[in-house]
Design goal:
6 helices; alpha+beta; seven-stranded antiparallel sheet; Jelly Rolls; 2 domains
C-alpha cells in the first residue's frame, strides 16, 4: 500500500474511504482494517456501502427473495454466512445446492441416506448456525456436526450422521442423540418432548472452547447435547432420506448468551 496514503490514513473522510475501498477485494479490506483506528472504525460498520456492494456482488440474488437471511441483519453478516453455507463439493451425489447457495435439495433416490457439510470447519471459538428443514422428515432427519472423515452418503435408510466416531447428531424424528453408532439418550430432556415441526428454526451451537454441542429450537435453548468433544475440525452437517426434502443453513457467528 502506498506509504503516503498510510501516513494520511487517519484523516481520510468516510466518503473518500468508501470510494477507495469499493475497488478492493475482501482480503484487501481485511488488511485495511489493521492500518489505523479510523479505517477499522469505518469497516466495523457492517451495513455501510462497501459491505453492501460486496454482499450484492457475491451473494446470489435468489438468497434475497425470501426471509432466509433475515436472521443475519447486516450486509457483512450475510456475506459471511454465504462463505459458510453448504459446500457443493462436499455432499452426497444425490444432493445438489440450489441457486440461492444456502439450501440443499435431496433428489428422490430410493434406499439412500444423503448428507452435506458446510464449506468452513471450526476448531476454535464458539459458533452458531441455523438449520431449517422444508418438507417431510421421513424416517431419518439428523442435524449436527462431522469431521471430514465422516461418510456423507450410504446405502439404505440409516442414521448416517452419528453412525461413527467422526460425527454427532440429533435425529429430529425420534429425538435421539447419536454418536459412534449408538443412541445417547432422548433430547431434549423433557417429559414428552415435542417433535420437530417442518419449518421450525433449529440453532446449532458449537463451543470449541468447552468442547460441547447444544441446540435451540425456535430460540429456546434445549440444553447441552454432547460434551467432551475431541479436539478436531468440525463442519455443520445434516443427513436426510426423504425425497425432494430441502434443508437451509445460515451461519450466524458467535452465539449470543442469555
Amino acid at each position: 500500500m502506498d506509504e503516503d496514503l498510510i501516513e494520511y490514513a487517519p484523516n481520510i473522510p468516510d466518503n473518500v474511504l468508501e470510494l477507495i475501498f469499493s475497488y478492493l477485494k475482501l482480503q484487501d479490506l481485511r488488511n485495511c482494517a489493521l492500518v489505523c483506528k479510523n479505517w477499522y472504525r469505518f469497516l466495523c460498520d457492517e451495513n455501510n456501502e462497501v459491505w453492501r456492494a460486496q454482499c450484492l456482488q457475491k451473494v446470489p440474488t435468489e438468497a434475497f427473495k425470501n426471509d432466509l437471511l433475515s436472521v443475519v441483519p447486516s450486509y457483512k453478516a450475510k456475506l459471511r454466512a454465504f462463505f459458510h453455507a453448504w459446500n457443493p463439493f462436499d455432499c452426497s451425489r444425490h444432493v445438489y445446492i440450489k441457486p440461492n447457495g444456502f439450501t440443499l435439495h435431496r433428489n428422490p433416490v430410493a434406499q439412500s441416506t444423503d448428507g452435506s457439510r458446510g464449506k468452513i470447519g471450526f476448531k476454535h471459538g464458539r459458533h452458531a448456525w441455523e438449520v431449517r428443514w422444508e418438507g417431510p422428515l421421513g424416517t431419518v432427519a439428523v442435524v449436527g456436526i462431522a469431521t471430514k472423515d465422516a461418510a456423507i452418503q450410504c446405502h439404505g435408510y440409516y442414521a448416517l450422521l452419528g453412525a461413527d466416531d467422526q460425527s454427532w447428531g440429533w435425529n429430529l424424528v425420534d429425538n435421539l442423540l447419536l454418536h459412534n453408532g449408538d443412541a445417547h439418550g432422548i433430547y431434549p430432556l423433557l417429559n414428552n418432548a415435542p417433535k420437530y415441526k417442518v419449518g421450525e428454526r433449529i440453532r446449532v451451537i458449537l463451543d470449541c472452547d468447552d468442547n460441547t454441542l447444544s441446540f435451540e429450537k425456535n430460540y429456546e435453548f434445549l440444553g447441552v447435547a454432547f460434551t467432551d468433544l475431541p479436539d478436531k475440525m468440525y463442519y455443520p452437517t445434516v443427513a436426510a432420506v426423504y425425497g425432494n426434502t430441502e434443508i437451509s443453513m445460515v451461519y450466524l457467528g458467535p452465539p449470543l448468551d442469555g
